[in-house]
Amino acid sequence: MTKNAVATTATTGTAVAIAGDFEEFAGLGMDQVRTEDMSIPFLRVLAQLSPQVNKRDGAYVQGAEAGMIYDTVANEVFDGEAGVLVVPCYYSRRYVEWKPREKGGGYVNSYNADDNIVNTTYRDDRGNDVLPNGNLLTNTAQFFLLRLDDSGIPQRCLLTMTSTQLKKARKWVTQMQSRTAMGKNGLYTMPMMSQVYRLRTVEERNDKGSWFGWEVAHERSVNLNLQNDKTLFQMAMDFSKSVKAGEVKVKEDQGEQATPVHDDSVPF
Fold this sequence. Notes:
Blueprint: E1 5-8, E2 43-45, E3 69-71, E4 76-78, E5 84-98, E6 107-112, E7 122-123, E8 129-130, E9 136-148, E10 154-161, H1 166-177, E11 180-183, E12 186-189, E13 195-206, E14 209-221, H2 227-244
């Protein structure tokens, strides 16, 4: 467990820094493992109503509190003030269809931003985009990331931002695109995975209540003159290519565990 990790209740298959003794047996026994057999972890911000903070809930994680960062596959929580380090690998925007809470809630489907279904919604009095069938359509920013533990070992994960967090998503994307460098052919935009960021959580509020949201800060640039950073960049590139090729399947039904935000425009 990393020093920022508060607790974990399950044994996970995450890499460890001392695995060198097993290098000659790398991947042994996993010949039949396919993409559809694996779940990509989501990074969530825990809220007061999240089951992970409720000691009487079967999903409770020891030590979990509102404002912490939760890894849905490792079942591990991290201090929201200290945050976690991530390397962004790929960005996409999706529109996710959900059943409203009064009808039981739950994931229905996911669509590209240019899908015709996006133009069929109407805005209700709570600010929700509602489909003709009564389901809700949520504008969702997806960031595919490598999360780094304190040893620098990367783990693939996914962070989604909706509702009040979409402004943060746009700001982050703009910040990424603004990072340029001078090359032999002139000025160019640096690749997304050339930077390391720190994700923290902060308390936010409006006239409807308070909640915890994301805070993104630039940590450092990846240094290709360092072997560890060069390897990290290559892993990030490989992850990005896999996502773009459609090889990484997002099991969006995990979104049912998304952080409840005190904002009526959020369908969770």
